[in-house]
Amino acid sequence: MNFLQGTLDVLILTALSGPPLHGYDVVDWIRTTTDGSVDIDDGALYMALHRMERRGWLDAEWRVSPKGRRAKYYRLTAEGRKELRAGEKNWTKFADAVAKVFAARP
Amino acid sequence: MNWLRRLMGTRRLERDLDKELRFHVESRTDDLTSQGVDPVEARRRALAEFGCYEPTKEAARDARGTRWLGDLWQDLRYTRRVLWSSKGFTAAAVLSLGVGLGANAAVFRVMDGVMFRPLDVPRPTELFFVSRSQASDSRFSHPTYLQLAKAVPGAAFAVSTPPVPLQATIHGSAQLLTSQLVSGNWFDLVGVRAGAGRLLAPSDDRGEGEPLAAVISDWLWEQRFSREPSVIGSTLMVNGLAYTVAGIAQPGFRGLVVGTPSDLWIPVHSQYEVRHRSNAGSDNADGSAPWVPQDGMSWLVLLGRAPVTMDRTRLLATLEAKHQQILQARHESEQDAQRKARALRERLSLIDGTHGLSTLRERLAPALRVLMGMSLLVLIVAAANLANYLLARGAVRRREFALRLAIGARRGRIIRQLLTESLVLAGLGGTLGIALALWGGQLLLLVVSTTSNPVPVNLPIDWRILGFGAALTACTGLAFGLIPALRLSRPDVGDALKTGGRVVGSVGAGRFRFPLVRVLVTVQVALSLLLVVAAALFQQTFRNLVRIDPGFERETILDVRFDPRLAGFEEAQLPALYARLIDEASRVPGVRSATLGLIGPATGSSRTSNLTVDKYEPARDEEPAFHLESVGPGYLSTMGMRLIEGRDFDSRDDVKNKKVAIINASMARRYFGEGSPIGRHFGSGEPTEFEVVGVVADTRANGLRVDVPPLAYFPLMQHPDDFARNLYVRVDVDPDTIRKPLEDAVRAAAPSLAVREVVTLAELTERTVATERMISRLAVVFGSVGVIVAVLGLYGTIAYSVARRTNEIGVRLALGASPAQVRRMVLRETLTLVAAGILAGVALVLPAGQAAGALLYGLSARDPRTLMFASVLVLATGLLVGAFPAWRASRVDPTRALRAD
Lengths: 106, 901
Known about the structure:
Chain A is α+β, with helices and mostly antiparallel strands. Chain A has helices at 3-15, 23-33, 42-55, 78-103, and strands at residues 21-22, 58-64, 70-76. Helix content of chain A is 60%, strand content 15%. Chain B is α+β, with helices and mostly antiparallel strands. Chain B has 27 helices and 25 strands. In chain B, strands 16, 17, 18, 19, 20, 21, 22 and 23 form an eight-stranded mixed beta sheet that branches. In chain B, strands 3-4-9-6-8-7 form a six-stranded mixed barrel. In chain B, strands 2-12-1-13 form a four-stranded antiparallel beta sheet.
């Protein structure tokens, strides 16, 4: 799993740490929260969602959306929450490391 | 098993995914619309923003891990298209593979049925037979059996006679049934169940005069009694003796002798009353008194069963010890020290009984081995076909694969697809092969049997055959698919893309750039030459054998076979019977003369005795012996035998006058020295009571390949206790027209005499070379199959080569070459391959000939005429096959060819 993919996963997991959302909601949430800086590619999103569902990090079920249409809603499993915490820790460690590199500029 | 569930619900998952993505796009569309964008424009933008729809689906599928299934399905559909697009070559490859696999599996089935299949009884590996070193037929006496049976704790023993014909009366007509006399515990020991009623039990081992039970086979019950339940408990007359049918043996059981099925089992103790008197060795015993109590009559086969855990060596030692005791007691009063010592030297041995007894096995074993070799060759040729086909196709599609690699296909994917293709091909071929094997096994047996001597081996459908076929198929497909797959998926793309389909200008272009293909075709031709040579050699061997002069007339003499003793005739009735038989037979139109014989030539039986000749001293270790035959008057002239010295029997030679005999040349040579044997005397031991009155030329009485034994003929009139079993009739007409009339005549002379068969001596002697005939027939079958398969391959290869070179040919034609020149070009190529193959094949004949040398007769494996014939045949076939593609090549339309890519 490379860096970029890992980051995407963490973002999605964070988005789903609250009430269950469907894919479109997730994109929307992330875009809104980052003030439009991060706009997730839709294809990558669904690939990630399905991959995480296969790994058992997410649970999915079909529900009727507020607009009256059926959509697939995702939410975190216990395993997923563990992954989220680990992902957060890793990211923080990485960010610290990068900061150190910048600080040590020759 | 989450993935399994996912696999199962693939279609639903696909729909779900579709819905999910569509929901996303619709939501985006809605958002845009609510922001004021035109709905149509909104949808377009939503889709565009989403990016590529299908790859997402595919990626999601990938993420789910069920992608390979969809890929496989795609591969299969593509394969189907590819194979269908070149139907002819697909058919050729599938057909040749199917035939190759089928032939092998068929031979495997026959071999299994004859040689490998264990008996259909519980724990067959526990069974064993006991054989004697000094008796070639390993028979024991009943008293010996009783003593040996008690000798080994933990092992059980039973006895039976070998299968013998007995005359039974069924629904009023007299028929000969193959039967066995068995001890009461025999069925129990073998482990056979009763299909209906009950089987023989130890309680049936009664003395004389008590009610007798019999058991019949399920086959007989079906064939002659139509499965009527009333058969059980009914009376069956056997040799004039009344038996009660106690039950039917389990379906499929017909004794333990493979190839000689039995249909009737009766108690051993009824031997005397039922007049069973054949297949016995006699030592100081009276053959006409009941055999059961006599220690000197050896007539029973000893069967044992012991757990596999019991050490066979120790078992044998125990038996041996007991047997020695018995021998000591038996020969205690023997005067002749030499005879006594020799008798005590006898040893026992154990024969594994898992597969039953079989002379059929020995007879067929060498032939089947040869067959296996030939069928393997056919398989190799077929597999080479497949390989060539795949390589040739691969060569054509190089460009296609180069293109796919260039636009990003993964190498693994391409390899997988090519393997799918070759596995599908192999699978089709394998299916065809299995079908052929199922049906061809029976066919093989038919080819192998003769009408009066069928090989009645049961060939059930066996899952091992399917397994064998499937394994072979898979191996072939993978092996021959992998090489081209690896080659073609090599990423040296540019070269292939550049040359495209046009191969103009490159030297050697169109010639097989892969020498592998040429080698394969050469190998194929070589092997098919080998097969043709083998077929021709075996055919010639058979013809040589059949042409040997047996010393008697074959075509014009018929043998009517029967058994008066089984039919219930007494000794006193024989002279009258003989007279009536000859009388009735002589009156049938077309009959020139008739006579009788006890044993007769080529019947497979013989009677032997030790020999003492006046004024002949045997060497120290020599045991003079001779064969005996009793014949009626006029035997020599009827049979067309040549008298060398002296005279034939005539009316002088009856019971009142001196005992006479006619000996054959072999006997005269071996035991009568230089001078004329006429007037000299010999006998079976002392006294030497027979006077030689004539010497007759040797006849190959016991078969065309066996050495002629010393043989003496005696007049039936002087041996009133001989029950003649053959009526020989010399005819002037076509034997086929006279069979029925002769049978009727015999029945008129003696209604209670069952006729076993009416055959010409030619048919009888041919039976003695049955193995050679079978080998020659099968060799022809396999030779033809091999050639056909090789020819299919050759055709495919040449035709493909032409197809690939369409451009080149087009250019040549456009530049002024004549169609004839094009034809010649293609033919020359064919010729080179075929010629190379023939040379290689001839080289292979030499070592192969060593292996099969023993099976040949009258010619060596290196026979030049045969090699010539085979070479010409293969060459002609090859050229014929190459002619069609050559003709097609010359008809290529240059403009079309140049345009095509």
